[in-house]
Amino acid sequence: MVGDSSEQWLNEAITKGYIDFCEYNKFTFIKEIGKGGFGTVARYKWKGADLDVALKCLKVDKELSEKIIQDFIQEV
Q1: Which residues participate in ATP binding (predicted)?
Q2: Top-level class of domain 24-61
């Protein structure tokens, strides 16, 4: 189990600019376009920007292993 270290990794990745963080309420769901081991990908409308974007919504899982985190990093 990684628990705290997965949250620490995510916060560090956001801080270092590897992952962009946007408030969820800035988007309007349109439709799901994919599902995989890390979560779902969906099409959203970015409010106020007149853009459609794909967002990956990660599964919240207390049982994340270091291997899963590394696989996700490679995917990104």
Answers
A1: 56
A2: alpha beta
pTM: 0.64
Give rounded-to-5 percent helix, strand, coil for the chain: 35, 35, 35
Write down the domain spans for the chain. Answer: 24-61
The amino acid sitting at 66 is: E
51-76 b/e (C-beta count within 10 Å ≥ 16 → b) = eeeebeeeeeeeebeeebbeebeeee
What's the burial of 6, exposed, middle or buried (CB within 10 Å: 0-12/13-18/19+)? buried
**56 is an annotated ligand-binding site residue:** yes
Over the stretch 53-63, which tens digit does the pLDDT of each residue have?
999 887 766 66
Specify whether the CB–CB gap between 40 and 34 falls below 8 A.
yes
CA count, 13 A, side-chain hemisphere, 16: 7
